[in-house]
Amino acid sequence: MNRSITLMLLFVAACSPAEQQPVETTTPLQPADLIEQEIAVPDFADFLAVDGDTVWVTNRGRVEQWSTDGVRATTAILRPCGTMAILSSALWVANCDDANLYRINLETAEVEAMISTGIANPKGETNVVAGAGSIWVPSGAEGKIARIDPETNEVIATVDVAPDTFFLAFGFDSLWAVSSDERLIQRVDPATNSVSGTTELGKQPGFLAAGEGGVWVQEQGDGTVARIDPETVKVTGRTKVGETLLYGDIDTGGGIVWLRTTEDQTFVAIDAETLEIRARLGPAAGSGAVRYTPKGVWTSAHDVESISWWSSAEKDSE
Fold first, then answer.
1. Residue 38 lies in a domain
2. CA distance 267 to 282
3. How far apart, in whole angstroms, are the C-alpha atoms of residue 106 and residue 217?
């Protein structure tokens, strides 16, 4: 082998994959530039789960997969309730009618399994979330969270938490659990399946999201969003949004906390660093959900039987 070829091979071997390929960069969404595409969804379009360029939506007696071009798939479930999770090529949905967790194949939209977990809040304001390779479900109003292994579809642990813990999020290597009645957020360590920290919250805390440097909780009765430091489990700031946040939804991404509201506007964009409101978008549309993607934001509005895709012309062309 000649010397020039040897040197070339050594150079290629020394380069990391990142050095061999260009780094893809994206421009964060600018909230004030987002334009709404409203899509009519009959009945009761509510909670959302993003699946690529589509979104799964809970509805009356079913869950549906939608794109901006229309409905893609439908799966019958008597009363799907709360937020859904995606893990292991499946959609995980709580059914408040029979208190089971349903596993739905993302490709075929068929129910693959029904897991007896119990549902802590059969009224429907609750969360199913994915994290640490598991699915987590508030399973008992007395203070229980079920942990499900997606490989076996079995409950592998039960976490003891405060009574009436209905709201969950996963992030910063921890499960975060809120009890509205106790006005409490709890950090759960997946390594031990036990609570490792708590702090008190404001009036009627509810839905929460973990990301963009903090854990963000709707203090629904106060009309505020509280930021929790994931290390200290302490409140480090609040943003006043309105009189109340009943009930709405929350998500994070792109340096923004995205807050679905029920008064004055459809949703609010809060700067995750400064805690200042960057934009208020859309007219008041009753209750619904919000989910962020790098290309745009999905919202639902069951009171007006619609979902919406909010994006900029630049993002749509990418």
1. no
2. 7
3. 29
- Give CA–CA dist 283/296, Å, rounded: 18
The pLDDT assigned to 318 comes to 55
Enumerate helices (H) and strands (E) in the chain, giving the number of each. Answer: 3, 28
Burial of residue 65 (CB within 10 Å: 0-12, 13-18, 19+) is buried
CA–CA gap between residue 280 and residue 245 (Å, rounded)? 14
Q: Tell me, yes or no, whether 15 lies in a domain.
A: no
* Contact criterion met (CB below 8 Å) for 210 and 170: yes
Interacting residues of 191 by C-beta distance below 8 A, sequence separation 6+: none
Indicate the pTM of the whole model. Answer: 0.91
Inside any domain, residue 193: yes
35 beta partners: 311
Q: How far apart are CA 275 and CA 61, in angstroms?
A: 38
Q: What's the Cα-to-Cα distance from 35 to each of 201, 234, 246, 281, 314, rounded to whole Å?
A: 34, 36, 25, 9, 11
Domain assignment present for residue 13? The answer is no
Q: What are the φ and ψ backbone dihedral angles of 266, each rounded to 5 degrees?
A: -75, -50
β-strand partners of 281: 267
Stretches where the chain sits below pLDDT 70 are 1-26, 313-318
**Number of domains comprising the chain:** 1
CATH of the domain at 199: 2.130.10.10
Burial class (CB in 10 A: 0-12, 13-18, 19+), 263: middle
